[in-house]
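Sync notes, pocket subgroup
Present: LS, DG
LS reminded everyone that the earlier model was apo-only. Rerun requested with adenosine-5'-diphosphate included. Inputs:
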Amino acid sequence: MNVAVFPGSFDPLTNGHVDIVERSLFLFDRVVVGVLANPSKTPLFSPDERVALIEAQFKRNKRVKAQAFDGLLVSFAKKIGAKTIIRGLRAISDYDYETQMALTNRKLAPKLETVFLVAREENSYISSTVVKQVAKYGGDVSGFVPKVVEKALRNVFER
Ligand code: ADP
């Protein structure tokens, strides 16, 4: 079975992430969305909440799983039997960091391949950071995130 890992913060899941997962399913048998539990920034949602939102979005698709991890991505990939890392590329500005990470991971795990999927034009400006800012000030995020995430954001900011 051809398993791929799609790692990231997913704080929270956006339509851009959903599209990358859906397109990855044409290339791989299973996609594990790896939720990084120890990002440098303080997250809005806990790792378990982020995993639950991803699981809720893909609950009808048995080929998609979400799992939190910390530490090295290459170790997590090995643990779950993933041979490929998927990353999304939005703009040229993503390119520097992404190639740096891909080359580092290749040095650490030469057989683990990184595959980049170019963001759809209509999603290319969407980021979790901007979504959080819009939601915080009561803006409409329905065009940026799945319904389940929209609801979760409303719960957080109405508290
Ligand atoms: P990270 O902090 O690791 O970049 P993110 O949750 O921001 O985590 O992103 C996870 C992955 O999803 C990255 O590969 C990123 O490039 C990709 N991504 C983020 N937003 C979009 C989008 N709007 N369209 C396509 N890919 C995206």
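DG: Residues 8-10, 14, 16-17, 20, 87-88, 90, 94, 119, 123, 126-128 surround adenosine-5'-diphosphate (CB under 6 Å).
LS: The CA atoms of residues 89 and 118 lie 5 Å apart.
Action: DG to write up.
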